[in-house]
Amino acid sequence: MNLRHPIAAPTRLEDRLAQTQQAFDSVAADYDGPRGNNELIQRMRDTLWQTVREKLPAGARLIDLGCGTGIDAIEFARSRFHVTATDWSPRMIERTRARAEEAGVASRVDVHHLGVQELDRLEGEFDGAYSNFGPLNCAPDLRETAAQCARLIRPGGTLVFSVIGRICPWEVAHYTLRGRFRRAWVRASRGATAVGMNRHTIWTWYYLPREFYAAFAEHFSLVDYRALSLFMPPPYMVDRYRKRPSWYERLGRIDDRFGHLPVLRDMGDHFLIVMHRR
Ligand SMILES: C[S@@+](CC[C@H](N)C(=O)[O-])C[C@H]1O[C@@H](n2cnc3c(N)ncnc32)[C@H](O)[C@@H]1O
């Protein structure tokens, strides 16, 4: 997600959800390009792919919460997982459907236009769920989403989520140096925060890993969590990365090696959290 400037003006929940939907609809057509996918995004994506494959056997039934254009859903379907792909943006859902057809894996990808606030409309029993790059930061009631995950995921099943974190040192430095002090500290906001994208508004809730886990703790035990892109800059700084890729790759390897350590794992552009259904 390429998050820009914060915008004030709180609105009703339905209006916020509609605004977030319009924001993602507006970028769906080119989301696979530079806006939504680049080397730094793919690096984080690889970590989620690897974690899902480590924690869940091929053939498992998975829910993708906020599937976007379906990059992850199609990757897992190719690896013989069965994916129920959901998203709140109808345009994103169209992209996922088309991508599954093109890849010849439509029989293993079930696509639903469904927000994370509407999971009560989904039926079935699943072995796990994943969510990549922050759809759960758009959930208006994370505890209710957790309760619905508990209804849908079998005991012993696994959740793998990448979530936008609160403490991103690169972001604070980047915007502070440009004099954009409110933007530098936007992740410190409590509650729903309006963040601009493509002249639209995404209503976003930021979390520390422990704040996020608290919503799931009643039904899920914490397996582990780690920082994503703490030493490596966030994806919107990809131009900086491209000037000295081998140097920044070294920082990426520090993330890979030490991102699970106490204190470090509470920071980063995103964090990756793994939980088990009790
Ligand atoms: C940054 S994109 C990530 C998409 C995809 N997971 C990926 O890895 O490319 C965030 C996605 O969350 C979706 N989203 C936003 N609010 C949502 C909600 N309330 N319920 C479900 N999906 C939502 C957006 O439509 C968008 O596709």
TrEMBL record:
InterPro entries: Methyltransf_25, SAM-dependent_MTases_sf
Cross-referenced Pfam families: Methyltransf_25
Keyword check for Membrane: no
Any one GO BP annotation for this protein: methylation
UniProt keyword list: Methyltransferase, Transferase
Gene3D superfamilies assigned: Vaccinia Virus protein VP39
GO molecular function list: methyltransferase activity
Boundaries of every Methyltransferase domain copy: 63-157
CDD domains tied to this protein: AdoMet_MTases
Cross-referenced PANTHER family: METHYLTRANSFERASE, SLR1071 PROTEIN
Protein name listed in UniProt: Class I SAM-dependent methyltransferase
